[in-house]
Amino acid sequence: MHEPVLLTDVVSLLAVRPDGLYVDATVGLGGHTAAIVEAGAGRVIGLDRDPAALAIARERLPADRVELVHADYRDLPRVLRDRGVDLVDGVLVDLGVSSLQLDDPRRGFSFRQEGPLDMRMDPTSGEPLSARLAGVDERTLADVIYRFGEERQSRRVARRIVQARERQPITTTTELASIVRQGAGGHGWQRLDPATRTFQALRIWVNGELEGLEEFLTAAIGLLRPGGRLAVIAFHSLEDRVVKHTFRRCGADGGVTVLTRRPVVPGEAETGRNPRARSARLRAVEKPA
């Protein structure tokens, strides 16, 4: 089972109350939820947009204390309303891609193994990346790659992709990665594969990862009881910037107390065990009592 990122810090910052009601809005494989339950939470409502992750989490979490829901984290207000819940003691959101998704070539998230161009966190809804790439215009594609991947060669990469799809449909991850590398340039000695930034950008685009994030954070704060806490783990600068600015704005308004002046990051021991944790950034706020 994959190790949950910043597990000890998450539980500490949530300050789990005995018998409290908590939400893990991105339950994944259930590691964080299990720790919240073990810390004494009375009930946890776990959301995830990936049915495969929910199936695994359901096997490892106690059904009498954890309710799992197939939903996007941004649906949290509706999920709670449907259950007659007004306020909760804490909310956790882990905005990263799960190892389950990255390690399964059939999901199409990684260019390190050949798989279909999908990249949807919820394969039951929306269009796979292959369909979106087939219809997007070059300028829009370049903007996506630059905005979400901060790729300086975005125009060249977009042009290469459009030229390639005109010859034949792009259907696999390795095929796309090869095309992207031709546009981005670079050499084998580089620490970061030239396809990395573009794949990140396309994943964010397909899943709408930044859409409604600020609105969700504001809504989640409104759903906290006095003394309740919201903890968010981000994995790239675009997400973390939204989280930081939203927390600062709500803190300036007196709506919350910011508990993390600087983000909590994994130590060397954790990144040694789990290299994917390197870019994790944890921030938290507390609703005034």
Could you describe the 3D structure shown?
- The protein has 289 residues and is of the alpha/beta class.
- It has 2 domains: 166 residues, Vaccinia Virus protein VP39 (Rossmann fold, 3-Layer(aba) Sandwich); 99 residues, Putative methyltransferase TM0872, insert domain (DNA polymerase, domain 1, Orthogonal Bundle), CATH 1.10.150.170.
- It is built from 13 helices and 7 strands.
- A 7-stranded mixed sheet has the order 3-2-1-4-5-7-6, with helices on both faces.
Key phrases:
DNA polymerase, domain 1; 14% strand; seven-stranded mixed β-sheet; 289 residues; 2 domains; Rossmann fold; 7 strands; alpha/beta; globular; 13 helices
Short description:
The chain has 289 residues and is an alpha/beta fold. It folds into two domains: 7-95 and 210-286, Vaccinia Virus protein VP39 (Rossmann fold), CATH 3.40.50; 109-207, Putative methyltransferase TM0872, insert domain (DNA polymerase, domain 1), CATH 1.10.150.170. Helix content is 44%, strand content 14%.
Task: Describe the protein's topology.
Blueprint: H1 7-14, E1 21-24, H2 31-38, E2 43-48, H3 51-60, E3 66-70, H4 76-82, E4 88-94, H5 99-103, H6 129-135, H7 138-149, H8 154-167, H9 173-184, H10 196-207, H11 213-222, E5 224-234, H12 237-252, E6 257-258, H13 268-273, E7 281-286
Parallel strand pairs: 1-2, 1-4, 2-3, 4-5
Antiparallel strand pairs: 5-7, 6-7
Helix pairs in contact: 7-8, 7-10, 8-9, 11-12
